[in-house]
Design a protein that fits this description.
By secondary structure, the chain is of the alpha+beta class. The protein contains six helices and 13 strands. The chain has helices spanning 2-21, 30-42, 57-64, 170-175, 193-208, 287-294, and strands at 77-78, 82-87, 92-101, 156-159, 182-185, 211-219, 223-225, 228-230, 235-236, 241-242, 246-254, 260-268, 306-309. It has a seven-stranded mixed β-sheet with strand order 1-2-3-6-11-12-13, sandwiched between helices. A two-stranded antiparallel ribbon has the order 4-5. Residues 79-305 form the ENPP1-3/EXOG-like endonuclease/phosphodiesterase domain.
């Protein structure tokens, strides 16, 4: 008797399945059948090998072998007074962020006993030697740049986080010599408008405002060659360190009344012409152009609102 009941139940189930599979089934409308077929196409049944659970392709790959990562240390690297996002492919930073405040540069209190320890500053009172460049062991050995990569090349070691920004802090000043903060620059670049921009930030923006956030980094812009637009750049040494074509600085100024102002600059990695009159305003660049060239979005969470941009030149921000 029980065997007959089981046979009947199986027959009913098979008949029901056949009805569902047919487009003209009275149990389902045309739209329901289309959705059912679409779900079957998008979510194939996959056996997990030992169990009956369903896994999709991405889940199987992640469980079996994992996904490739740019590096074992893909998060931003934290240092005492700045933070770096490192590009393991090009062996240079994606960006370097600093937070500059007046009290870290200047002392108004005569009882302030801090001594200028930055060897790159003319006011250095210790006469100590410049710190040596050193690697960051958090970066995989395959992806580290080395000082030897710059030997016998026409390029110099440039720093994104400027040691002169930390005149009273020997530890922070020494940390700027880490190779993750280094980029190849053309000789004379750091003595031109890039130097003027750094001085402008320290001597004017930091002095006159509550604080300043500075994001610096390299850019790779295409150039025209034989009628074709191509991405061409040099690589240095066995580490194949990439030489950027341009550099950017995105500056967020926090005023004393709590407002935020934005200035963004882009400069070519080249030596200025002899006798050329340099004006920083000539390098002001809309933020959207820097974002396009860098692949970065500087304010993805849109937590900030600016009262002005690029000295009120009217360059639009992205959907802010």
């Amino acid at each position: 008797m029980f065997r007959k009941i089981s046979y009947a139940a199986c027959a009913f189930a098979v008949g029901l399945k056949n009805k569902v599979d047919l487009p003209d089934s009275p149990l389902l409308s045309d739209n329901s059948v289309s959705k059912l077929n679409l779900q079957r196409c998008l979510m194939p049944r996959v056996s997990a090998g030992t169990g009956d659970c369903q896994l999709y392709v991405g889940d199987r790959i992640k469980r079996a072998v994992g996904f490739p990562q740019l590096t074992a240390c893909c998060k931003p690297l934290r240092y005492k007074d700045f933070i770096i996002s490192y590009d393991t492919k090009n062996r240079i930073p994606n960006w370097v962020y600093e937070h500059l405040q007046y009290h870290k540069f200047y002392k108004d209190d005569p009882c302030d006993r801090r001594v200028n320890v930055c060897p790159y500053n003319e006011d250095n009172q210790t006469g100590q030697e410049k710190p040596k460049f050193h690697p960051d062991c958090r970066i995989h050995g395959y992806h580290r740049a080395d000082v030897r990569d710059y030997c016998d090349t026409e390029y110099e070691l440039g720093l994104m986080a400027d040691p002169a920004n930390y005149p009273f802090d020997s530890e922070a000043c020494a940390e700027t010599q880490v190779m993750t903060n280094v980029v190849p620059i053309v000789p004379g670049f750091s003595c031109g408008p890039w130097f003027d921009l750094q001085c402008y930030i320290r001597e004017k923006l930091v002095r006159e405002n509550k604080s300043v956030y500075v994001c610096s980094g390299p850019l790779f812009l295409p150039s025209e060659n034989d009628g074709k637009v191509q991405m061409r750049f040099d690589v240095l040494g066995e580490g194949e360190v990439s030489v950027p074509s341009h550099f950017f600085k995105v500056i967020i100024i926090e005023t004393h009344d709590g407002n935020l102002e934005l200035e963004s600059y882009m400069m070519p990695n080249c030596k200025p012409e002899e006798g050329e009159e340099v004006k920083l305003d000539d390098y002001l660049t809309p933020l959207c152009q820097i974002e396009h060239a860098s692949g970065l979005i500087f304010f993805p969470e849109k937590k900030v609102c600016f009262t002005s941009n690029n000295k009120r030149r009217g360059a639009r921000l992205h959907a802010l």
